[in-house]
Amino acid sequence: MKIALYGRILTEPLPERLQILFDELESIKAELYLHKDYLKYLSGQFRINGKVETHSDYESIRGKADFLLSIGGDGTLLETIAFVRNSGIPILGINAGRLGFLAAIAADDEIRAAIKALKSRKFSLDKRSLLKLVKPDDLFGDVSFALNEFTVQRKDSSAMMTIHTYVDGVFLNSYWADGLIIATPTGSTAYSLSCGGPLMVPEARSFSITPLSPHNLNVRPLVVPDDCSITIRVEGRSPQYLAGLDSRTQAFDAGAELTVQKEDFKINLVRLPGQHFFNTIRNKLMWGLDRRN
């Protein structure tokens, strides 16, 4: 079995329990492909035995890795989509962060069970839709897609923005706000949720449009079909604004039109036996807990 690994290089050390991950990978004789910079970071903290090669980008793991393990939190997992793209390589998130909606494997026994499940092929795949920025097509280079959300926000001014928004060419609204979020079902538990957006099950064929701090208090998030095309044009006092695809941002000029659609391919997330989206949101959001004592 060939397994690629990716994580962020942090100033603080990773949890010691992650040695269990490398011991389990050694026990199944996995061939490892570690990101070249991450290998140096890990080697100073953990024993990594067996066959180890390095990767640096999409081309270096396409057709080579059976799985990609993301070590970190949800933000780290979002970065891995640039490595897998349309290759179909399944991603499994090992949580070394905090909340972890996507990177849910955290405890020692969960890590052991996860590696055994990969070895025995006892898992299913969640096919998660993405969105892509189709206009302008050169703003984010060849990684113009996102698993969570597309955003527009202020760049260097406290002045409010006016965001003219169209769905399939039909005028929806001019939002007076600090920004706008267009989220996938996967992204509905992320930035969109913190800004009052709706939760959506991963299988929903929808996008949500959520304004950031709208001036009109009666403006609410809207759910639209994901086969539509959403175009926005920003006006305001600033010459430039920020566009974001997950954690990546680029500046664009005021007055420019930006169009978002569903990406042609999907990302495969490994779902282990007993895992379900309802369990995740109930536990992570602490639904049903009696906090009165």
Q: Which terms summarize this structure?
A:
alpha+beta, six-stranded antiparallel β-sheet, Tumour Suppressor Smad4, single chain, 7 helices, 293 residues, globular, Rossmann fold, 17 strands
What's the gyration radius in Å? 20 Å
Number of helices: 7
pLDDT < 50 stretches: none
Can you count the beta strands?
A: 17
Structural commentary:
This protein has 293 residues and is of the alpha+beta class. It has 2 domains: 2-123 and 272-284, Probable inorganic polyphosphate/atp-NAD kinase, domain 1 (Rossmann fold); 129-265, Tumour Suppressor Smad4 (Sandwich). The chain has 7 helices and 17 strands.
In short:
This protein has seven helices and 17 strands.
Write the layout of secondary structure elements.
Elements: E1 2-7, H1 19-27, E2 31-35, H2 36-43, E3 52-55, H3 58-61, E4 67-72, H4 74-84, E5 91-95, H5 108-120, E6 124-135, E7 145-146, E8 149-154, E9 161-167, E10 170-177, E11 179-183, H6 191-194, E12 206-212, E13 222-225, E14 230-235, E15 240-245, E16 248-253, E17 257-271, H7 277-284
Parallel strand pairs: 1-2, 1-4, 2-3, 4-5
Antiparallel strand pairs: 6-7, 6-17, 8-11, 8-15, 9-10, 9-14, 11-12, 12-13, 14-17, 15-16
Helix pairs in contact: 1-5
